[in-house]
Amino acid sequence: MKDKRNIIIIALVVSVVLMLAKFSAYFITSSNFVLTDAAESIVNVVASAFAFFSIYIASRPRDENHPYGHGKVEFFSVFLEGALISIAGIGILFKSVYGLFYPQEIRDLLIGALIIGITGAINGVLGYYMIHKGKQLKSITLDADGRHLLTDMVTSGGLVLGLLLIYFTGFAWLDSVLSITVGLYICYSGYKLIRKSVAGLMDETDFAVVEEIISVLNTERKPEWIDIHNLRAQKYGHELHLDCHMTLPNYFDLNRVHQEVVLVDKLINEKAGVFTELFIHTDPCLPQCCHYCSMPNCPIRSEPKRLDIEWTMENIIRNKKHYE
Questions:
Q1: Which residues contact 295 (CB under 8 A, 6 or more apart)?
Q2: Complete domains list, the chain, with CATH
Q3: Which of 17, 41, 158, 308 is the most exposed, fewest CB within 10 Å of its CB?
């Protein structure tokens, strides 16, 4: 968590400096197009500040009121960032449409383009770094903040090109038209972040994570693991909580059952790429399981094995044994 906090502090300091630079560019040029980037930089500062707070909360240990920890606060951070980006985009759209009908003089576009270009490059480097660290540290907050900075880099690049186009063509009306285009892109970026945060808060399945877990289970599958079903996964910040039902031979004693459960836990945590807390409910096998059971030398087998069932997303998440 210390690494996450340090990265967010760096992002916050950089965001403040770049915000001041962008507003300086706006006051120099009086360009609505430049204002789009300056307004979004306010969002960067507020989002980084809240991200720092959310990471602090997420790092707190679980307690009586939060038995699964505080990791989901990171989804609120992402929601706030998406909402602020959307509000900034809507504000830019109104200002730009107004500018079409009531234009104002713009000036010193080359100086403005230079300032915006430098700030965009800095945001791009920082954004790529935060996305990389977000994946490494399993932090949705760092990842979202990094993607926001990449969005800022793209809009800054487009802004520089637009300012140069206005400068060389002399078409002042392009200032408002281009800022409307950027405003729409900003609104779309905000929507995607809001969608991502709501998905997390509603425990929407992360199919990429579940597919990776299924791949590990299939690769490491043992004959004793007759069946796995009713698999469900929930993300809490950087942690994954997984529960499922596992069918084992009904003649296993409690020690052997515990041994198999611990092995599954260990395999997923070592090979699935995400820290996972597992809750595994064990079921005893039934005669109907024999036709797909690979257990050798089974003393209670009622019929020979005649079917191989691969664990897939479709059959592993159903709340049914595979024969049903």
A1: 223, 224, 226, 249, 301
A2: 2-201 (1.20.1510.10), 207-316 (3.30.70.1350)
A3: 308
